[in-house]
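Hi everyone,

Forwarding the result from last night's run.
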Amino acid sequence: MGLKERLGIDLGVFKESTTWKALGIGIVLFSIIGYAGLSMFDIASSGYGVDRDEIRLAPDFEVETVNRTVEESELVNESGWFKLSDHRGKVVIIDFMAIDCANCHLVQEHLENEIEDWRDYDGEYEIVIISVGSWYPSPVMEGESLEMLNETFGDTDSDSHMPWIVATGDMDSVLKSEVIHSGMNNSSLSLDDGVYCLEAWVDDSEREISCIDIGVTDNSHDNDDLSNDVDGIEIIFEANSSLNFTIDTSLEGNVSWELIEMIRGDMVEEYQAQAIPVALIIDHEGFIIAKASSGTPTGGWGDFDSAVLAAADGEAEDLRFSLAKVDRSAGAIFSMGLLLGVLVYFSPCAFPILPGYISYYIGLGQREDELIEAGKLESKMPAHWILGGLAALGQLTFFAIIGIIVFGLGSVINLSGVLHYFALAVAILLIVLGAFMLTGGTAHLLGFVQKLVDKYSTTEMDDRFTPKRNMYLWGIGYSAASIDCTAAAVIPFIAYLAIIGGAATWTGLGGLMLSVSLLMITVTTVVGLGQQQFITILRRSTGLIKAIGAWMMMMAGIALTFYLTQPELIASWL
């Protein structure tokens, strides 16, 4: 008994010219759609969390490293902590990453390819790299601990070993200073516990700085080295739980002052690193000069690498920009959710799936009339926006399930290291399904594939075809296949929303859900409006569209498998 009799597979399709014509068309369509998706991601990510109107220093921070003898020893303090401001006069590349982030590993591969050349570069300023774990534990999720980062990136025998500083971020890693009061002459202020510095000056004189600690200061940082004495100006604090002070001066002019609070901030929030990977270049004076948000930038790594060398030569002043200031208002968090949804939908892990989804939907439209004639479809398929909405609902359902596992069952089910293999399994399944679709064996799938298809999905081989259910399942598959890139952005973002609380929590979730839904509905509707013309052009070739869909489904699986398993090779091409 041959393959056709046992599995319904007809290898004779490879002798037909239609099959190879479909392959050629599929390659062209897959390339165009995939590149367009990656380009959309680059455009959206380049402006995420960036402020080019006001140039400010990169936020100072101190993070705990894995503290290895070779990689960290000369760049951290005796306790293994790295502080950014201690490295003024160096070029610092900050790589925000996570273990369960496939795209992050592509950034890592590129840094590995360049690090020796950067270390040997005869520039004016030394180049230092630090990778910061961004999926760190919080009150609402377990995340990836420093020990886990060390096991993955710290071991020299590991395939993922990082020969540079490896650290973990935290909710209090960033050292902030904010002006909370200002005025003229003496004053009395009522303050909460904390660490403060008072700056006083007369007209255009240098600033006298005196610092004081009040009460318990757990969320503050050290101010001992910030004082500055100026002749002719003296700040006198009165011992009090609040802050009473007088400013004595022998200088003539108007006395002004500012009270600065020294507080700590969340690493991911302050560095706008919700959608990792994010790689930043900090020049020798502490300003950001370049940003990369993908391990596969469509324009390659040329601009980023050139910026590294320009910074090392001290010639990057014209490239400086700032990170957007943290804004926890409901409107700002809603906007953040909207933009994050765009990054999720067009993430590099999703780009192989988008062409497959589009080709499937075109094929769905082609078979509509014949399915109605065969009695397998009772009426015309629903409107494009309805089917797109069902696919969007499938996406949201999948992320809701992952969210429940992470936040509700995190202590029982540990997803660390699992998401990569989950995405890989989906990629392989796409290859298998595409191959069966091409060779006519769709109705003879074996094992769990057969059971899943029989139970939940339908094909034109079934007595009744259910396009609504199929589109919903496609949405689940879309999110499942891209989980290796999107989980490290979506899950920490949801955790962040849970921590800040209030109306912003719901506006942030609403923005994310609205963005993902509108994109899926828009893509489905646009494809639906244009599918009839595409079908009319190809109608003379029986089965051509179905073959194109099968090839593109296999291409999606192959591309995703390659993306997930060959970061070294991909990095060498960019």
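The longest helix spans residues 503-538.

Cheers,
N.
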